[in-house]
Design goal:
This protein has 402 residues and is α/β, with parallel strands linked by helices. It is 35% helix and 20% strand. The protein contains 13 helices and 14 strands.
Length: 402
């Protein structure tokens, strides 16, 4: 080990034990500058004269729990507030409008910016291999979810064959990757089941769940803009169940594996989640996590998930950015500030648990990432412009220290 370095800071959130909403102030961290291993951390009872004290909060590296890195070339192209039906129309219209060289450059730029802003790990969605080389070369850990679409039952086998070939490419690049379903409204029941069965072999799934009322109306009533959109395009629609899209998804999972299912399943968005839904998830999917992507939800349909209710449910929450087709940036601090401004009762430290430790737990990386504790290598991040009450301000930004 090289000579240990020590940093001092105004606020230190180790997230390692105790009440995470109450930072150590002032704090110190001892770490190995060669590989970032944490040696020690705690309250700085005495600060040597002349020592630099970082003015802000030092926190573990973030985990971006939901991203579509390969869509980075779409930044600024989408109209806001179109709802999911309008958003899908724009995706279909604009996908692959940029040449490959430009797409690859945008991927590399955004991935580098995420690393420099303090993201240490990511759960990323891929529909193609555009992002594989950049992710494989990055110090940022990524688990890649190979997302599939297909509304026609007869196409299920060919879609699965194609995604398994894509998985081989990802694994050859050294990535952890496996198939995953997209959402109930873009897939036949057969494809939801088949892709879930393949993904569960890896121990992980990601699923866009209850993102919009249009989705719920489609599954529950067989009506609404999303239903009309799919019909107008000549696509088959999922069965009308009279229930929620979450119930529909869990029924599809139960068709391929007996409940309860303990694998790590990320339910992304959950804007329309109900208390009954949280109880269903706890009963049937004990390994489930929720990914909050508030800026994307506002961008597409000016809505937010029921965060207070989700907190009370006890389901572990994580934070993601979604893609630059539905966001202005891939910036975790901006997501946290959005949550803070809309849910003022949530302590900053609790949001950090979502953005750091819970994300690491979802990825199965909590023994290395997510908290500042001896022996771990979470990365160290400074968040500046912290208010006197310890909360974020509109000027807060994050910078990687280690």
């Amino acid at each position: 080990m090289t000579e240990v370095k020590r940093l001092y800071c105004k606020y230190l959130y180790t997230l390692a034990d105790g009440d995470a909403s109450r930072p150590v102030s002032p704090g110190y961290v001892d770490y190995d500058p060669e590989d970032g291993t944490i040696v020690d951390a705690g309250a700085a009872d005495v600060i040597p004269e002349g020592a630099e004290v970082l003015d802000g909060a030092v926190v573990p590296g973030f985990v971006n729990a939901h991203c579509h890195l390969e869509l980075s070339y779409m930044k600024g192209l989408f109209r806001r507030g179109t709802g999911m039906a309008g958003f899908i129309d724009q995706i279909n219209e604009l996908r692959d409008v940029a040449p490959l060289e430009e797409r690859l450059a945008d991927i590399s730029r955004e991935l580098d910016q995420m690393w420099r802003s303090g993201v240490s790990a990511m759960a990323d969605i891929s529909n193609c291999d555009d992002s594989f080389a950049a992710k494989a070369a990055s110090p940022l850990y990524t688990r890649t979810f190979l997302e599939v679409f297909g509304t026609e039952p007869q196409d299920c086998d060919s879609v699965i064959k194609g995604v398994l070939e894509l998985q081989k490419k990802a694994v050859a690049c050294g990535l952890d990757a496996a198939p995953t379903p997209h959402a109930c409204y873009t897939m036949s029941p057969q494809l939801v089941e088949a892709s879930s069965a393949e993904g569960l072999k890896s121990g992980y799934l990601s699923f866009h769940s209850e993102e919009t009322p249009e989705e719920e109306e489609m599954i529950g009533k067989g009506s609404g803009r999303l239903w009309d959109n799919r019909k107008a395009a000549g696509m088959s629609t999922p069965p009308v169940t009279g229930g929620t899209s979450l119930e529909y998804f869990i029924d599809r999972l139960a068709a391929v594996k007996p409940l309860p299912i303990s694998e790590h399943i990320l339910l992304v968005h959950e804007v329309c989640m109900t208390e009954a839904g949280t109880e269903l998830v706890k009963r049937t999917l004990p390994g489930a996590f929720i990914a909050l992507c508030p800026k994307s939800n506002i961008y597409i349909h000016n809505a937010l998930p029921p965060v207070e209710m989700l907190r009370k449910s006890g389901l572990p929450l994580t934070v993601g950015t979604d893609s630059l087709s539905s966001n202005d940036s891939l910036n975790i601090v901006e997501e946290l500030y959005c949550l803070q401004e809309n849910f003022a009762d949530v302590p900053f430290g609790e949001m950090l648990v979502w953005a750091c430790l819970n994300g690491a737990r979802f990825l199965g990386k909590e023994f290395e990432l997510g908290s500042i504790a001896a022996g771990k290598k979470p990365g160290l991040v400074l968040i500046d412009h912290i208010a006197a009450d310890g909360r974020l301000t509109s000027s807060s930004a994050s910078y990687r220290i280690v």
